[in-house]
């Protein structure tokens, strides 16, 4: 059996502000909804659920109109890409953002 890759999958999305309107509000909302959040820079949020071990990391680059969201699954995750995409509306609601429909 071969060595396991350190990343199982990664997906990229574009998003815009919705219920929350700024990075501070986004950080606060995610923490209220039981996410562990770090801000390596004033315009970047990295979040994961408080489950241990965490399987999914959400990396959000934030700008005036929204930004980019990278969803990274570690090797312990059991989700397919389709499963992750199917459940992104739950993250949208938790975060207070809107994913843009055209992801090209």
Can you walk through the features of this model?
This protein is an alpha+beta fold and 104 residues long. It has one domain (9-99): TATA-Binding Protein (2-Layer Sandwich). Helix content is 24%, strand content 39%. It has a 6-stranded antiparallel sheet, covered by helices on one side. Strand 4 and strand 5 (66-73) form a beta hairpin. The longest helix is centred in the last third of the chain and has 15 residues, at 81-95. 18% of the residues are buried. The mean pLDDT is 93.
Give short descriptive properties of this protein.
104 residues, alpha+beta, TATA-Binding Protein, single chain, 2 helices
Q: What topology does this entry show?
A:
Elements: E1 9-17, H1 23-32, E2 35-41, E3 44-49, E4 56-63, E5 66-73, H2 81-95, E6 97-99
Antiparallel strand pairs: 1-5, 1-6, 2-3, 3-4, 4-5
Q: What is the number of E strands?
A: 6
The averaged pLDDT comes out at 93
Strand content: 35-45%
**Fraction in helix:** 10-25%
Tell me the span between the first and last alpha carbons: 36 Å
How many helices does DSSP assign?
A: 2
Spatial shape: globular
Q: Biggest sheet, in brief? A: 6 strands, antiparallel
> How are the strands ordered across the major sheet?
2-3-4-5-1-6
Q: Using the CA coordinates, give the radius of gyration.
A: 14 Å
CATH class: Alpha Beta
Q: Could you please say which CATH topology applies here?
A: TATA-Binding Protein
Name of the CATH architecture: 2-Layer Sandwich
Number of domains: 1
String of helices and strands: EHEEEEHE
